[in-house]
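Lab notes, practical 5.
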Amino acid sequence: MSPTITAFKASPDRGRGLARDMRVRWALEEVGQAYDVRLLTFAEMKEPAHLGLQPFGQIPTYEDGDLVLFESGAIVLHIAERHAGLLPGDANAGARAIAWMFAALGTIEPPIVERSMATLVERDKPWYAQRLPMLEDRVRARLGELSRRLGEADWLDGAFSAGDLLMVSVLLRLGGSGLLDDYPNLCAYIARAEARPAYRRAFAAQLAVFTAASSGG
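Output from the prediction step:
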């Protein structure tokens, strides 16, 4: 039996692949694991049936037999540990890949999300003009550190891993912001990841959901 994940029935990102189910789709595609998707409206996400799976009323969730998981990072880690392809076989290299997963979600993502939320909900506030440069400076500081560490390498630590998958998923949230323009190695890094067949399959699958919702399908 294939695992089932949940996703937005009508994603607020308009099919750009930024919703967190995309990370899980991508991981499943990388390891060659078939999966089913249960689409939810925003109202359904707050109903008891879903809250029993995800106590904060968010997506994605992951169900596989008796196992129910929430939080995209935890789900990707589970997939990587259960299937070959996203964690190196060497124990030390695997531990480093997991460290990069934590870095993506715990160090790089927070200032990016804070900036994104400010542009969405604070644009009309009197403090927005002064606050935005500070938020963007925080993002640039992390991008600079990451850029220096990546250098000219293709991936963060040897072969592509779950660490790269989550890191790129986070960096994609900066699309259109211009904040990546000063870091050509990070732009190339993202492009390499987007060119992976597994990424393309995952992106096409989530885009098809948005297209169907938009057309009333």
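Observations recorded by the TA: The chain has two domains: 4-85+198-214, 91-196. The CA atoms of residues 52 and 63 lie 12 Å apart.
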